[in-house]
Amino acid sequence: MVWWEVPVAAAGGLLLVWGGLLLVLWRTRPPDLTVHEALRLLPDLVRLVRRLAADRSLPRRVRWRLWALLAYLLSPVDLVPDVVPVLGYADDVVVVALALRSVVRSAGADRLRRAWPGSPAGLAVVLRLAGLPAG
Asked: pTM to 2 decimals?
């Protein structure tokens, strides 16, 4: 075995895992939500996640998920780099949607509504991201 085969095989394996994660993210995205619509809400989403993560009445596992989501959103390292047109931000939208759905299942939609810092139209988009009816 040549010395470079192991690093090349490891890199190939990581690329396959990364590709699989991208496929899962793409398949679980909200079907009627545009990336542009969700990206406009990013500042309000960050405030929402911070408020929910600081809420001591939520279960600890939910708060940990929210802190992890906040770290992911603020981190320069993403599953798809943000310099990639459209897909660079689409992975953030899908990760937020999955996390919000998890929080709503554990904490309830009312907490999400009470903690929302933005406009009612923005809340409707966030509720769609979380898999809930906007009304």
From this structure: 0.63
